[in-house]
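Title: [Solved] L-ornithine N(5)-monooxygenase [NAD(P)H] 3D structure

Original question kept below for reference.
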Amino acid sequence: MVSSEIHPAGVYDVIGLGFGPANLAVAGALLEQPRETCPISVNKSLFIERYHEFKWHPGMLLPGTRMQISFLKDLATLRSPQSPITFLAYLHSQNRLVDFINRGCIAPTRKEYSDYLAYVARYVQGQGIKVAYGENVIAIEEGGQGTVQIHSRVLTTGETRIRRAKNLIISPGGSPWVPRCIQIILPHPRIIHSSEYLSSVEPMLATMKASTQSLKIAVVGAGQSAVEVLLDLNSRLTSMGKGTGQAHNLHLVIRGGSLKPSDGGPFANQVYNPGYVDVMYDMPSDSRRRVIADYKATNYGTVNPHTLDSLYEVMYDQQVDRDIARCRENALPVTGARITIITYSDLSSSEINTHPLQTSTETDTDTVSVLFQNTLTQDFSKMTYDAIVCATGYERNSWLSLLKTSSLGKHFGLCAGSDKTCLSVDRDFGVAANEKNGDFVVTTNGTNGILKAAANGRNGYSRTSNMGINAEGIHAPCTSMDTKASDTLYISRRYRLLPLSTAGHEFIPKIYLQGCAEETHGLSETLLSVMGTRAGEMVEDLCSNY
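Solution (posted by the thread starter after getting help):
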């Protein structure tokens, strides 16, 4: 079934894909624009969200877990401290401001921050922002008359809805990623991703509680989520008690030799300052890649030092229990779980093991065999687990798939068959006017949109290397030697994709990206740190170029 649900005027001023924190910040910034001068109407703004209600990382709202940033890096404070959607405004509305101050910590719990975001979602909707919940965007196309056409499917009914907008903001968030050798045996109730941990862990453990044998569970990953899951699983398995007198085994599988603490110091954190986005964007691409690599330990594959201390205390306490029990001839009971860190290990292959008496529809007694390769010696070893939790991060390429399969991609130089795509800054924006001889290229200034001629590579102009995004969501070098011009998309400082000049046709709709441009805007792009400031810049650009 197909229906067309559009504004009575026929077209929305702006549609946002997703209604997570990024577009929530945009909604707040839109509401705070002067109504008498803002060309974007709140009544003609819509956000499409696949969840049936507002949710933020529901699978990782573990008890006691804290945010890794200050409460001041909320959806609005750095943009406008007097905004009604700041974290302080939320605390005041809950009559909890003084109690939060007395707490003496600038980092809220994850549970409280989730409630803050839900509060803001209710507020902006109450102010007129429309949200279509429970719909999954399946395609975007040219809509004619300078519009973009958005196709979405209602998850409860399967109905397809088609809407048109003059502007589009794509904020896809992250899609759970698991190693390829695990992907081939999915779905399975005993293999879960950390993004769905809270909703899946109890059903997963329930399939194993009837077993009298000790359990062996692997957590794959070396970041904050992996350690948080590990500690939570340790608590759950300990409360389950021992199996046949033996402790349950928890393995944390990591590629390196040890867990690494995140660098949260004030100097390292300057890379997440809003002003540092300008610094990153203006750098040559080679320098930008080097800075991203230098500061990688502030975000990727690292763990908050306090969380590491907690894990070490748990593992040390388990060791004390074992030593005392051994010296006293098992006078003390063996703890219900035992944590081991499996270092220098990379997943090579996996398979589901079924038992001889098990039918094809039974999964309660399945086990998973995993072949590991030692990253130092290259030797192989095999382990069998009752369950696996993949805390292996996210990929952020869904926006590329939407553009590649649409008629819009060609306007930005996107080749549908390309398997590698680069984002580049506006100063490198260019297209050969004559592909046969490459007489000249045209570049644009992303701030004011003025076109100017630039000499080609023979006269000093060269396409700089950039960072590509591969299928696993991992940034990889992308150079002019192995990348066609059609593989490079250009993005302005204010997050707007820049359309290429095409003979006889000007692409009018503006398309913005959020959370996808780390290789041009820096490490803060996928995080909460600059979300409020970015939303303000994007809305200002949207209104000034309307």
